[in-house]
Amino acid sequence: MSRPMTQTAAPSPGAPRLKPVRRLRLGAPLRGLALAVAATCLLPMVAVAVAALTGGADTLAHLLDTTLPRTTANTALLVTLVALGTGALGTGCAWLVTMCRFPGARLFEITLALPLAFPAYVLAYAYTDLLDHPGPVQTLLREVTGWGPRDYWFPEIRSLGGAAVMLILVLYPYVYLLARAAFLQQSATTFLAARTLGQSTLSTFLRVNLPLARPAIVGGVLLAIMETIADFGTVSYFGVQTYATGIYQSWFAMADRAAAAQLALGLLGFALLIALLERRQRGQARQFGRGSRFEALPPIPLTGARGVAATLACALPVLLGFVLPVILLATMAVGSGQDLLSPRYLRFIGNSLTLAGTAALVTVGAAVLLGFTARLQPGPTAKAAREIARIGYAVPGGVIAVGLLVPFAAFDNAVDAWMRATFDISTGLLLTGSIWLLVAAYMVRFLAAALNTWEAGLATINPHLDAVTRTLGRSPFAMLRAVHLPILTPSILTAGLIVFIDVMKELPATLIMRPFNFDTLAVQAHRLAADERLDGAAVPSLVIVAVGLIPVLLVCRGVGRQRAAADRRVG
After folding, report:
1. How many other CB atoms are there within 10 angstroms of residue 420's CB atom?
2. pLDDT 10s digits, 300-322
3. Would you say residue 33 lies in a domain?
4. What gap in Å lies between CA 146 and CA 109, rounded to an integer?
5. For residues 183 and 138, is the Cβ–Cβ distance under 8 A?
6. Would the pTM of this model clear 0.85, i.e. be above it?
7. Pick from 314, 334, 354: which residue ends a domain?
8. Rounded to a whole number, what is the largest CA-CA distance in the chain?
9. 353 and 472 part of one domain
10. What is the phi/psi pair of residue 187, to 5°?
11. Domain for residue 22, yes or no?
């Protein structure tokens, strides 16, 4: 049986011809670029592992017999103290300002985030000048009592305990912000149900509110731990031997690249374990709907002695973590003789801005590439590239520096040897010691922050909008340029600002990888502090803090909006 023949009407000669939609195939190029970014993020870890496993073990054996046990113990003890301190301080302050009303509660709700602007090593410089033996506190104590230098005991600021206090004061806002957001989302019904069963306010907090906020608190504590193991400036200045300082000393003082890689591998393993725990607890957390009976918890009034105690408890971290250090640094800077407008300091500022601006552009561009690829072509390849790119946030800057320098130094030496043998020309170091390799290290370190910010904004765009745009004949790049980028401009600016500030504060990677005679404000502050010229170190430190205030003020603005929304729910 023959099929019926169908006839299609031919278009009339005068009718306009529809232009077919041209499909631009970008699958392979996009995947290739995304995999290239992921490979760059993975390279330092692979290089560290290879260099550690293939290098000699002489220096490592010597370290095992001498300083490595103490280094391991110091690192573990420092992490423990910071975890306990940030968890208790951040959670306690978050509970007070969220669930209670006392004098200054609204003000503290915002100002408790201000210590985020301080790098821990800047705080260390300020308190060393205040509390060290020749500082004003001990000098006044000797003048008042008539004691000699050996007649009294005073806590040593340059110690592991001092380093822990500095880190707690600048890292507790991680826990505070996450715990505060979790407490704001809790309904009054659970709290009131516990009270009707005879539980006290403290018992209800410990048995109901605290367990409900546990995922947020643990997430904040793990972020603080990751920052602690990555810290170099504070522990180095206080003379505390940790893995971060051991990597730097092995690389420069001992000139043993294998030992540095082996120490970096140990620190990398610990960092990845912390990152895995953070991802695991975040993945197991469940957010259930609050239901139609959700009621915001009415604030608990604290008056009299309890109100004064709450005010002091919230004022102390703000005073010690922001107000007092700013006053100390400003006082030190006035008589330091350092001129911010001198050509030398203008060069430091220019170098810092160049590195931070370039790293922000490159990192945000890589984040947009990864996020857009995963959006356009969701699949195992794009997902794997995105997850690999996130690993860098858990890797200390010193580990990334060693992991990039080892393979690129070998590449540069191989190229130079071949050029000498073939053409009798020395190429020198083409990539090692260049700005671009340092920018690559920054990208690996901070790509996760930019990617998370971009994806948070991208999640607000309905996927149907992409489909509509494509049916109108727009290519993927046209869709990105005309639809995504205009809508997500705030997210892009926020991501760039976060990376910019983080690069301004980054010290270990900059110290190890910076080009010759290319110093930044962070390097200058570290150098002056290492030479015991704390007055001089105050000047670049103040500039770093001033720049760091920008994202903190944005965070404070968001805190104010959240409180206003919570108050409307209570009303």
Report:
1. 12
2. 888 889 999 999 999 999 999 99
3. no
4. 43
5. no
6. no
7. 334
8. 119
9. yes
10. -85, 150
11. no
